[in-house]
UniProtKB/TrEMBL annotation:
Family annotation (InterPro entries): DHFR-like_dom_sf, RibDG_C, Riboflavin_Biosynth_HTPR
Protein name: Dihydrofolate reductase
SUPFAM superfamilies assigned to the protein according to its UniProt record, in alphabetical order: Dihydrofolate reductase-like
Domain Bacterial bifunctional deaminase-reductase C-terminal, residue spans: 2-184
Amino acid sequence: MRKLTYFIGTTIDGFIAAPDGTFDLLMTYVTDDFLPHLVGEYPETLPGPARAALGCAEAPNVRFDTVLMGRGTYGHGLAVGLTSPYAHLRQIVFSRSLADSPDPAVELMADDPLAAVRKLKQEDGLGIWLCGGGDLAGQLLPEIDELVVKQYPIVAGSGIPLFGAEFAPHAFRLTDSRVFERGNVILTYARATD
């Protein structure tokens, strides 16, 4: 069975974006030792233009072959004319507001995200990457098998939380951690089974 991984950047206080949805504050902490790690370990999580700029446009998918996005997350690329940000992956956007896909390579789904993910997990292939946002992550929390949290050394105070969900604790266990030169940390968690 395929695994759903929420691979996401966050502040120390658990915000994935500013209140207006922008995430520029996190990008200032992409350091010289951090970026090569991402390129080497998670090349498919870089959008097409970044892959081209970093010389890894032809890098094979290592962990994921499918990306899930909420409408807000997908909207960041649309705002700059990028209609297919992850052309090297199967791209699925959950939206009730978009009637037609801006790009034939992007699938729109207005269905229940949980049912859709359960079906995707039954298919053959690599893992499924939940790219964001926080509301979609909150809806999919019961199906998230792994969290890979890129924690940046900044406190935002407010913004879009890592999960937009009702109070309902879900246990995970730390399986890996890595600290980078400016205090960036990558924390990997697996869903606790006991």
